[in-house]
Amino acid sequence: MFTSRTSGRLFVGLLISAMVVTACGGTASSPIAGSASAAPTSGASAGSAAPASVTFTLQRFFGTCQEDYGTETDLTKAIGECAVITVLINKFNAENGKGITLDARAVDFDHYYDQLNASFAASDPPDVFIVHRSALPDYVDGGGVGAIDDLLAAAGVDANDFVPFAKDGLTYDGKLYAQPLDLHTILWHMNNDVFKQAGLVDSSGNPIVPKSPQELLDQAAKVKTSTGLDYIANETDGLMIYRWLTAWVAQQGSSLYDQTGKVTIDTPEALAALNLIKDIYDKGYADKNATYDTANQAFLQGKAAVVVNGTWPVNDYINQASKGGLTNYSVVSFAQVFQEPGSWADEHTFAVSARAAQDPAKAAAIGAWFEFLHANSVAWATTGHLPPFKSALASSEFNALPFRSNFSSTADIAANAVAPVKHGTQLITAIDEAVNAVPNGLLDPASALKQAQKDVEAIFAN
Amino acid sequence: MTANSSSSRLANRPSVITVILWLAAFVWVIPIVWTVSLSLTPNETLKAEAVGLVPKGATLDNFISLFEVSLFPRWLLNSAIVAIGSTIGVVVLCSLAGYALARMTFRSRGALFALIMAGVMIPDHAVFIPRHVLFSDLGLSNSYLGLSLPRLALPLGVFLMFQFFRAIPRDIEEAAALDGAGSWTTFRRVILPLSRPAMVTLGIFSFIQAWNDFLWPLVSTNKPEMYTVTIGLASLQSDLAQTEGLGSLMATAVVTSIPILLVFLVFQRYLIEGVRGTARF
After folding, report:
1. In terms of Cα–Cα distance, which of B264, B125, B278, B121 is closest to B204?
2. With an 8 Å Cβ cutoff, is A462 touching chain B?
3. List of chain A residues whose C-beta atoms are within 8 Å of the C-beta of residue B69
4. Where are the beta strands (DSSP E) in A312-436?
5. Looking at chain A, which residue has its C-alpha nearest residue B80?
6. Which residues in chain B (25-64) have CB-CB distances under 8 A to chain A?
7. Which residues of A touch B85 (CB under 8 A)?
8. Cα–Cα distance for residue pair A143/B200, rounded to 1 Å
9. What residues contact B203, with CB distance under 8 A and at least 6 apart?
10. How far B264 CA lies from chain A's nearest CA (Å)?
11. Rounded alpha-carbon distances, angstroms, from residue A193 to A175, A190, A311, A318, B164
12. In this complex, do A26 and B179 lie within 8 Å of one another by their Cβ atoms?
């Protein structure tokens, strides 16, 4: 009965395989093939001494596009965030002349902070990482990031060149904790052809941007009746309604909360703004079920007059303008329909882990990267983002980029819109969840604001 | 027309149930066909129109560009190592534990079984951070061992095997005992061959879980060369990826679902047997 040993061999085989396969751990040490770190970095530039090589890690989002830009160093060939950041890193690695290797790691945007926080929990954070201005206070408070004043000074970067919005939001107890990469905001992206078809253009043929809530609703009605298209394409499952609300609240001289923890969400200003947003959806001027991607697709296919989106896709939209339904594109600051200029804004910044900031060799290498970014700020601004530096904003190179003069003033008007506070990401999520329920009628504006007020107060209290 | 040919035609006519099943299968398969169709359509075409089950201007470019991502083969390999390794581990451990709990008598067996089953009720997220810190302290981040080990504790798998072993008639074990077999020999040479369908069912379940896992590899790895395919592909996505690169995204969906499809095709016979396994005894 037990002459067959097949089963026994099978079992032992399985057991050994399990042990072998699960035990073959160990960190792969090969360089990231095709990535920026693979670029040659030794061989200092002419005239400089050859210092010891140093590598620092950098964690970012914006996607990966190694197959298209793996070794590219020509910034003029890069279109869009992924391409520009990849080429910037390639260029730095190839040309820094100081033996510095920047080992860049891309993480999916939706789970970026999960992984970043996990790496901090495991005491293995990247040396440098992208962090939003709105999220930075948590990392400063937790002691995870180091001050960069000395690092910047040694690298020759003048922090006085940062625009106030950038510098103020990154300074805690008089110390600077991150270098801004950009300043980003939401914009009024328009399909000129739809505006023209609806008769909503001025004598020069430019689309007319609404200046009051009523004018906006009138425009939307006109687009609907004359073209059958939606006036606005906008996601209702992401952060865009929150940003939209923030902008229109700021235009009434208010904000949703301030740096002292005072919560002002359930206010007449916010109610006026949210009621207007609800009107747009209730009257059928926008798709209640749009996601970020379907809203963009609708706009690019010429199926909406306006898309509510940020600075980040400007270059992409311009690039697409000659290829599909969106043949005649323009963009301006987010429509000012209330009394004063105002918008939602945030920043992408580079923070340095406390451990790396204390390592002289790494700090010097990171300083060189920051100096390089400062010098190439306009290259990143080709994506559509605004440079966070006064010199870059005033440069002819930046102002020669299409449409930039239409929205570069956001750098001045965004100052009070969003306060950088602890638990910033949590606060934004709480507001976002409440206000996203409005377009689909799950909550009326007053209830949504009450809920958000209560939730945000609870977060501040804890 | 003869009576025989008439009845034969009637017998060949599909029943109402068959028609309903075919319709259900058709509805179920539409998303898959759509995914394959999109994966074979140029991204530029999909910017204008993404509706339709037949690819317009069929191309393999989306697949070619996927394999041009230098780390993609490495991510596939990582996923394969982790999924196969943890699957083998799960099957071995759950079989041993399930057999011991179902057929052997020892002190505190009931308490041990209850303790293991209590594990089913603890959400993975509740132990996530301490586990991550522990693994990191042990130096297991960015390693195959670190990616695989947490998957080995699968109380549901123990329960599945326990149920299966419990349904095997005791006569079989008694016959083995009469032939001089001890517990280990009985398990290895009698019970294990009989439980192949249940092991395959558990193996498929475990493989799919490990292959599709996102959260643990997300926090357990921060070096691109150690990403599994789910993390690696997510990291590729840039803004407007689903607007401008729908075909590429669908190509990744097709390629990454092939291993799971193969596992099903190869083991489906055992899977069906496993599902009805307890009824056999």
Report:
1. B264
2. no
3. 64, 66-67
4. 329-333, 345-346, 348-352
5. A21
6. 44, 47-48, 50
7. 17-18, 21-22
8. 49
9. B87, B88, B90, B91, B267
10. 19
11. 49, 9, 21, 14, 67
12. no
Q: Cα A422 to the chain's mean position, in Å?
A: 19
DSSP per residue, B259-280: HHHHHHHHHHHHHHHHHTGGGG
Tokens for A220?
Answer: 């939307």
Q: Which two tokens stand for residue A402?
A: 């299409």
Q: Does A43 touch chain B (CB under 8 A)?
A: no
Q: Answer whether A23 sits within 8 Å of B44, measured CB to CB.
A: no
- Pair B182, A2: CB distance under 8 Å: no
Closest Cβ opposite residue A301 in set B44, B48, B240: B48
Question: Is the Cβ pair B136, A121 closer than 8 Å?
Answer: yes
In tens, the pLDDT along A411-454 reads 677 765 678 888 888 999 999 999 999 998 999 999 999 999 99
Q: Which residues of B touch A106 (CB under 8 A)?
A: 224, 235-236
Say if B132 is an interface residue toward chain A (CB within 8 Å): yes
Is any Cβ of chain B less than 8 angstroms from the Cβ of A173? no
Which residues are CB-neighbours of A97 under 8 A, at least 6 positions away? A43, A44, A45, A48
CA atoms of B154 and B137, how far apart (whole Å): 23
Residues of B in contact with A15 (CB under 8 A): 92
Instruction: Using alpha carbons, list the distances in angstroms from residue B255 to B109, B227, B249.
Output: 45, 16, 10
User: What's the whole-number mean pLDDT along residues A315-340?
Assistant: 87
A382 close to B (CB below 8 A)? no
E-strand spans in A17-127?
54-60, 100-106
Are B225 and A22 inside 8 Å of each other by CB? no
Out of B144, B222, B237, whose CB is closest to A22?
A: B144
**Cα–Cα dist A413/A163, whole Å:** 11
Arithmetic mean of pLDDT, A336-362: 94
Q: Give CA–CA dist B250/B37, Å, rounded.
A: 9
pLDDT, tens only, A163-203: 988 888 899 999 999 999 999 999 999 999 999 999 999 99
Give the position of tokens 């606005």. A232
Between the CA of residue A215 and those of A209, A337, A338, B272, what are the distances in Å? 9, 8, 11, 65
Distance CA B251, CA B41 (A): 10
Which residue in chain B is spatially nearest to A311 when comparing CA positions? B239
Q: Measured between CB atoms, does B133 come within 8 Å of chain A? A: yes
pLDDT (tens digit per residue) in A113-146: 988 998 898 888 999 999 999 999 999 998 999 9
Residue B117 exposed, middle or buried by CB count within 10 Å (0-12, 13-18, 19+): middle
A237-271 burial, b at 16+ Cβ within 10 Å, e below that, comes to ebbbbbbbbbbbbbbbebbbbeeeeebebbbebbb
Token digits of residue A244 = 């939209």
C-alpha A64/C-alpha B235 separation (Å) is 6
Q: To the nearest whole angstrom, how far is the Cα of A194 from the nearest Cα of chain B? A: 17
Cross-strand bridge partners of residue A60: A106
Cβ–Cβ gap B69/A27 under 8 Å: no
pTM of the model: 0.80
